[in-house]
UniProtKB/TrEMBL annotation:
Alphabetical GO biological process terms: homophilic cell adhesion via plasma membrane adhesion molecules; synapse organization
Segments crossing the lipid bilayer: none
Protein name per UniProt: Ig-like domain-containing protein
Annotated InterPro entries: Cell_Adh-Cytoskel_Orgn, Ig-like_dom, Ig-like_dom_sf, Ig-like_fold, Ig_I-set, Ig_sub, Ig_sub2, Ig_V-set
PROSITE patterns, A to Z: IG_LIKE
Organism: Meleagris gallopavo (Wild turkey)
Amino acid sequence: GKPAKIIEKSEVIQVTAGDPAILEYTVTGTPELKTKWFKDGKPLPASKKYRISFKNNVAQLKFYAAEMQDSGEYTFEISNDVGISSCTTSFTVLDRTLPPFFTKPLKNIDSIISTSCRLDCKISGSLPMTVSWFKQDTEITASAKYTIHFAEGSASLEIKHLDASDAGVYICRATNSAGSKDSSSTLFIKEPPSFIAEPESQDVLPASTVRFKGTFKGTTPLTVKWFKGDTELITGGACYIMTEALASSLELYAVKPNDSGKYICKVSNVAGSITSIANLFVKEPAAFTEKLEPTHLVKKGGYAELTCKVTGTPEIKITWFKDDRELKESDKFRMSFTKSLAVLHLTDVETEDSGEYICEARNDAGKDTCSTIVTVKGVCDVQPLKQFVSLNSEFQSMEVLKDSDVILECEVLGTPPFEVFWVKDDKPVRSSKKHRISTEKSLISLHVFRFDASDVGEYQCRVTNDVGSCLCSSEVTLKG
């Protein structure tokens, strides 16, 4: 079954001596329901002064004419096989000439600016009674700002749209024919923080000192925290934070491009918190991500394209120099700079166009340079050494001992890069256990290990570069 339960009740009843009064409770639960009544914790004695009834789930204690000594705490209890429930009612019988008194006086209250607050109290005493409200000595009247309420012994004052001037002492005055009584409370207004001056976003050069500063108002004490993104900052290293009562500053020393980002100032107090975001952008110096090739070999009358890649914060200015003299746009020199790619195009080159070409990239944050050596050539020479005869003479035959190691070596004069081909009796020679081919700068060699009859023959070396090729050869035979 359902447990016995009180669903409607009277908690505080106040009547004047001689008046009738009813304490009433509505209950629920599965029968059989049993009722009990107590006064001040003791079973209520039988009396002709009142009548007790329980009908249709409504229990009543009815006083025909209340007397002063009937005042007290009345407890009603309802029970069945599955539960028990009770409720206590404070019953006060007043003398007809009882002056007002506060059963629940006003309390001090903290509230936040721009919100609403309510001052509450409870009053007993003979009716009729009037209630007045005062701030300091000035009476408050109902208006859009003030709502005044008084009913059944409860008095309240609601104050809307609080501002700093609403702070102070409030008095509730209850008056009847027997006298008057005051209760007072102090209203404290807490102001959440707000910025007077917010930290400002900044674009700076690398290695600068940056200072973000905020000033604010609000009820002290205020707590200030600084963040970069989600990470809280603390004083130390290249960061210094200074906070006063109503101001705070963040200093960053010798900033780098990776110090760029969002810097947040958060100010809090008991009434709330507020944040402000300032952006820091540290300019990135101009720098080459891909430099010019170290050397360029160009055929006389031909063309060359010098390219390099640049990074950095715009605007970047590109300047080209040849042997420290600035180049200007002309038929021979055409310059472009798009999508980080800097290009110098040389056309119809002459021998005197050989030299060092320098590209300079510059912006507010710094500069960088890279260079290349351009050589304008029309020839390639090979000078044989040791076993190789010179190109101007007849091929020289050469005799070697069986099982000896033979080295054919020549020096190349000309402009790299070179392509080298070795041939024996018109068949290509490749690196193997028998042959080792090496090229070190201008020195080219073929090493033949444990020379035997199968190695006898004519050895040729062909060297090629962008502008020509050369050939030298030697006949190698066995001794004896």
